[in-house]
UniProtKB/TrEMBL annotation:
Keywords: DNA-binding, Metal-binding, Nucleus, Transcription, Transcription regulation, Zinc
Coiled coil segments of this chain: none
Entry-linked PROSITE patterns: ZN2_CY6_FUNGAL_1 (PS00463), ZN2_CY6_FUNGAL_2 (PS50048)
Name the record gives this protein: Zn(2)-C6 fungal-type domain-containing protein
Keyword Nuclease: no
Protein species of origin: Stachybotrys chartarum (strain CBS 109288 / IBT 7711) (Toxic black mold)
SMART domains recorded: GAL4
Pfam families for the chain: Fungal_trans_2, Zn_clus
GO function terms (MF aspect): DNA binding; DNA-binding transcription factor activity, RNA polymerase II-specific; zinc ion binding
Amino acid sequence: MTKVAKGKRKRAYRPKTTSGCSTCKVRRVKCDETQPSCLRCSSTGRTCDGYSSAQSSNSNRSREATLAIVQTLSHDAESCAQSRRSLAFFAQQTCQQLAGFFGSLFWERLVLQAAHREPALRYALVAIGSLHEQITLESDHPKTFALKQYSLAIKCLLTPLSQHGKRAVDVCLIASILFTCFEGMQGRHKEANSHIRSGSRLLQETVYDKGSELLHHPVLGSQSHSDCYVPVETLANFFAVMDQSVAPVSYAHSYAPNDLPKKKYKTGKSRLQPQGLCHVGQRRRERRDVFVVHQSWRG
């Protein structure tokens, strides 16, 4: 192991990038790549000279979904402005960091669309965006806003939609993934693991009825498989990768092997596993890599 001199902090490795606005490139500083003007320039009173056309095209993929979510935010002026900023940062920056692991479609489209209708997920995205922005800008300001949004997300998730309302299975699973990311970004691996295990338990408790195409959970109730924001089998892949238990994640008798699409799954002795993720060692490496990504944001 490489020894670090006492009193010196070794910076985490992160690959070099040619992206960023023209101003930050000339200054040779890290650009946060916020559109249309980066925050590093605007926060210091500099003029941001913008980005190349290719970069702008890639960064605009989530713009429509982001604008739709922004319209549903609180009418409180101060809160709304800060929420818009954090949400834009998530859509333009954070989801690109996360897309390498779970896929860009999930982060850049499906999650944003779900957050448009689900306040709990919206609060979680704002919290993650706010925290990531502070990490990127190496800000020493307290993470009060991010933590408040995170608390609101949890509170909102635990509050029934109505007196007899229930939370949908897929919303709770997506929330568990977002909460895992938020805790992992802070290096709080114990808390992140707790959310991973909660999601895994939720999957184990959920039963899919092939005849009615309904998902049944003893507490959350029933919902149509086709109404899910994100296919449950896609969410199951995430938890199968991230779960640290020695035995494979078992969806036995819940997601019956013949019920869900076969192209992503294989079966064996009443257990359901995503293809290519059967070995515990590989699963742990995937899980470790996610936490390494979270830590690399800290620089």
